User: Which sequence fits this backbone?
């Protein structure tokens, strides 16, 4: 079964450093998403991306965050200057339609980001 | 701001019996509702969805019921199996939204052999 692949599985970074989280969505999917889950809290939507543009973003997704599809297979989330409160599990997801809610978004296994 | 609430943090059922997971929401404009299952160290896995214009959707052992007047939905798993032991998330989305799922906090289901 096709999978969304995220690397690394765990990343530790110093406060103030830039970090890039990487994702390889399912190959025929066109819509891409990032979510995060702070320990003990809900999964929260960050951003959606289609046709090389952000299509929707949440209040969490401020100027410190950016997304990119640098080539035909990768989808990245960059945090420019990490803060302690950015520590969370970050999930990438993809879907092959804009109505991904009908068929369900396919999630990766996540990257645990620890900011120290 | 808890638009989607799962009030039971945990549920324990016997193998072969029915598991009923509940979810309440406050925003009557939600267009679709989804259920996800999550095992430790894995991402959420989609189970089943339901449109706000339906009151029931069934897929194998999983059935989701929607009661719009009560702003309540439930996921029924029949029969429950030990492999169903996981955290179950309810999520909702507004029409036209691109992936902005509003999640509940999850319910941890334990199915005992």
Assistant:
């Amino acid at each position: 079964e096709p999978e969304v692949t995220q690397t690394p599985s765990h990343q530790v970074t110093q406060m103030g450093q830039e970090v890039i989280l990487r994702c390889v969505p399912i190959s025929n999917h066109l819509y891409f998403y990032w979510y995060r889950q702070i320990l003990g809290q809900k999964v929260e939507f960050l951003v959606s991306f289609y046709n090389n543009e952000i299509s929707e973003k949440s209040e969490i997704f401020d100027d410190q965050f950016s997304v990119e599809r640098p080539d035909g297979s990768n989808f990245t989330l960059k945090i420019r200057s990490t803060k302690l409160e950015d520590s969370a599990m970050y999930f990438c997801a993809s879907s092959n339609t804009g109505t991904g809610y009908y068929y369900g978004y396919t999630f990766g296994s996540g990257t645990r980001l620890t900011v120290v | 701001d808890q638009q989607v609430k799962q009030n039971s943090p945990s549920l324990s059922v016997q193998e072969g019996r029915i598991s009923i997971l509940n979810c309440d929401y406050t925003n009557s404009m939600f267009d679709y509702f989804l259920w996800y299952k999550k095992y430790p160290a894995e991402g959420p896995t989609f189970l089943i969805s339901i449109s706000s214009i339906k009151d029931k959707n069934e897929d194998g052992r999983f059935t989701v019921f929607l009661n719009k007047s009560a702003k309540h939905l439930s996921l029924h798993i029949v029969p429950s199996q030990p492999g169903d032991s996981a955290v179950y998330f309810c999520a909702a989305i507004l029409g036209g939204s691109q992936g902005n799922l509003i999640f509940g906090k999850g319910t941890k289901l334990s199915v005992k052999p």
The radius of gyration of chain B is 13 Å. The interface with chain A takes residues 31-32, 34, 36, 41-47, 49, 51, 89, 91, 93, 97-106 of chain B (CB under 8 Å). The mean pLDDT of chain B is 95. The longest strand of chain B covers residues 30-38.
